[in-house]
Amino acid sequence: MATKTKKNPSAEKVVDNADAVSLPHAPINIVESKIQIMKINVHAYELNKPYCCHAMSQKALIQMEQNQDGITKTRKKEPKDQWAEFIGAGYWLRDNKGEIESLCAPAIQFKKATVDAVRHVGDKKTLTMKAVRSWFHIRSTIPHQPDMVPLNSKPLPEELFDDMDYRFLGLEDAPTKSRWVTPERIKEMKKLHKLGVSISRHPAKVGMGMDLRYRPKIYNWTATLEIEFDPMFITQDGLVNLINIGGRLNGIGEWRPSSPQACGDWGMYRVERAD
After folding, report:
1. Residue/partner pairs of 202-211 with CB below 8 Å, 24 or more apart
2. What tens digit of pLDDT does each residue of 76-99 get?
3. What are phi and psi of 112, to 5 degrees?
4. Using N-to-C axis directions, what is the helix angle for 236-249 and 107-116, rounded to 10°?
5. Considering the entire predicted model, what is its pTM?
6. How far apart are CA 200 and CA 219, in angstroms?
7. Closest CA to 113 of 136, 142, 85
């Protein structure tokens, strides 16, 4: 009696066909990336429209750490040192002795303004913010502080003084004199005025109430940016144009045009073009 062989449906079939697997005709070629570095000058877009910054103070950082450690914050409201809050809100370039040399803006603020400018130009399918953010980097020209861009200005003219500038020059009338004004701070305020720096005092909404904020601002400023980019992805002229658009439509700092909460016309800038 003949024995029937059972077929295994799961058995693999070996195909002896040279055309079954297709290989690329040539290996993929990746063009060498040649990084370029350029320096550009930018300046305030409009006369007497300042840049105002708000850095997180050391006091705020300590309070956050205390919350993490489970330290209960006292309900007693501490007096607000107006000068300490003003200094704590600034990005400062200091010398070896700790003396302030200039007010700075974080380099990342210029990059964010430039990347966000992509929303206003080009084809959204081929030119995206996600792609552009990796095409270039912006830093300062200060080797030991590359993340902070110094802002330079002429001495602050008296017509741009705020009430707080007069206060910390010791020029207030007796009924309005502040407990936070000292001879040392008057001397420091005069130095900051020579750098073009002023004190901004403005109300801010906090929860259901209001509070006052004290922050540094600088008028008619100029700055030098060092740009690292890859011309394989964007041309030098194209990047400069994008930086210019970002400065006009977005700006940097408080009350910039692109601010999600309090938009204004501060912090705008333009690229200084060669004639």
Report:
1. none
2. 677 889 999 999 999 999 999 999
3. -60, -40
4. 100
5. 0.83
6. 12
7. 136
Phi, psi angles (nearest 5°) of residue 39: -120, 135
Strands 148-151, 136-139: pairing kind: unpaired
Cα(227)–Cα(229) distance, rounded to whole angstroms?
Answer: 6
Which residues touch 146 (CB under 8 Å, ≥6 apart)? 107, 139, 140
C-alpha to C-alpha distance for 148 and 94, rounded to whole angstroms: 11
User: Reading across the β-sheet that carries 269-271, which strands appear in turn?
Assistant: 136-139, 222-229, 36-44, 269-271
246 three-class SS: helix
Chain-centroid distance of CA 41 in Å reads 16
For 141-160, the pLDDT digits (tens) are 999 999 999 999 999 999 99
Supply 19's token pair: 């055309």
CB 220 within 8 A of CB 152: no
Q: Cα separations (Å) of 99 from 85, 184, 193? A: 17, 13, 14
Which is it for strands 100-106 and 148-151: parallel, antiparallel or unpaired?
antiparallel
From residue 11, give the alpha-carbon distance in Å to each of 1, 4, 18, 126. Answer: 27, 17, 21, 48
Taking CA atoms, 94 is separated from 90, 104, 116, in Å, by: 12, 10, 31
